[in-house]
Amino acid sequence: MVYNSSGGIAMIRNTRKRCLFGVLAIVLSQLGLWTTSFAQGRPDIVWMRRGHTDWVHSVAFSPDGNYLASGSWDRTVRLWRVSDGALVRTLTGHTDWVRSVAFSPDGHYLASGSGLRVYLWRVSDGTLVRTLTGHTMDVLCLAFSPDGNYLASGSWREIRLWRVSDGVLVSTLTGHTERIDSIAFSPDGHHLASASFDRTIRLYWVADGLPVHAYDQEINTWVPSLQFSPDGHYFAYGQADGTVVLARNWSWRRMGDVNGDGCVDDADLLAVLFAFGQRSEDLPEDVDGNGVVDDVDLLRVLFYFGRGR
Q1: C-alpha span between 250 and 260 (Å, rounded)
Q2: Which residue among 121, 134, 165, 261 has the highest number of C-beta atoms inside a 10 angstrom radius?
C-alpha cells in the first residue's frame, strides 16, 4: 500500500494468482490527471477512484467481498462497490480523523474509529446504530471477534471490549505503556492480542479481560502490526525496522485449555490425568509442548484453573 495526501483509492489485481480479489493497494496521487494516466498505464489496476479530500488511513473488505470501506482524515468513511468501483454511500458525522475501519464477520455492521469515539454503522442503509464513548485518547485500531459478538478498540495504553448487541463496555484491557497500533482476536475468539509502540505484544482472555502473557522476545522496536494464522497456532508481527516475525502462539494449548472450549476446568484436568505419561509431538494434553504429558502439564492446568468463560 502506498499512502499520500490526495485522497484517491485504487483496486489492484493480483497478477500472481490471476484473480481480482487478492491484493488491495491504496494509491494516492498529487494530481487527478496523474492518477488517470497512471491507471491507464497499469493493467493490474482494476479501478481507481478519487473522492476523499485527505489521506486514506484505513481500508477493509466486507466478508463477502462485495464492498470496500475506506476511512479518511477528511472525517468520512466511504463505501465502494468492488465490482465496478461505484460509490455506494458516504458515512458522515465523525468529529475527527477516521483512523480505522472494520467489518463485522457477518458483514452487517461496519465500525469506524475517529477521535475518542467508535461508530457502529449498519451496512445495508448506512444508519448509525450507536456511538461508543469512553476512550480518553484517540482510537487507533479496531477488531471484531470471530463470532461478531464483541468489538475491540485500541487506543493509548488501553483496549476497550464492547458488546456489539447493545454497546455495553464489557472490559478494559490494560498493561501497555504506549499507543496500541494493532489488535487481533485468535481464530477461536478466546484471546485478544495487541501490539504496541512500547515494544511488547500482550495477550488477554476475552471472557474476563485478564492478561495471559506479555511477549517481548526479539522485539527491538515499535510493533505496528499483528495477526494470527487461520489455525491459531502461530502469530506474525511486523516491526518498524523492516523485520517480519513468525512465532508460535503461546495461547495454543499453553494456558491449560486442553480441549479448546475457552475455559480451564475439570475437563482439562481429567484429560491430562488420563493421558499422563503418553509421548507424542502433537498431543493436546501436552500443554508445554515438550513431547510428553507429565507433571508440568498438570501444574499448568492447575495454575490456570478457572480462567476463561
Answers
A1: 13
A2: 121
DSSP string over 113-161: EETTEEEEEETTT--EEEEE---SS---EEEE-TTSSEEEEE-EEEEEE
DSSP 108: S
Asked if 308 and 264 count as a contact pair (C-beta separation under 8 A), the reply is yes
Gap between the Cα atoms of 270 and 61, Å rounded: 43
Backbone torsions φ then ψ of 211, nearest 5 degrees: -70, 145
| Contact between residue 50 and residue 32 where contact means Cβ atoms under 8 Å apart | yes
CA terminus-to-terminus distance, the chain: 39
Give the three-state DSSP class for 274: helix
Three-state SS at 206: coil
The domain limits of the chain are 56-248, 253-309
Q: Report the greatest alpha carbon distance in the chain.
A: 71
CATH hierarchy code of domain 56-248: 2.130.10.10
Residue carrying the nine cell digits 511486523:
238
Query: In the CATH hierarchy, which top-level class contains the domain 253-309?
Result: mainly alpha
Q: Considering only 3-12, 38-47, 223-232, 238-247, which range has the smallest mean pLDDT? A: 3-12
Residues 264 and 304 sit within 8 Å (Cβ to Cβ)? yes
**Nearest CA-CA partner of 101 in 49, 138, 140, 132:** 140
pLDDT digits (tens, 9 = 90+) for 92-110: 999 999 999 999 999 999 9
pTM of the model: 0.75
The gap from C-alpha 19 to its chain's centroid, in whole angstroms, comes to 24
Q: Give CA–CA dist 196/215, Å, rounded.
A: 11
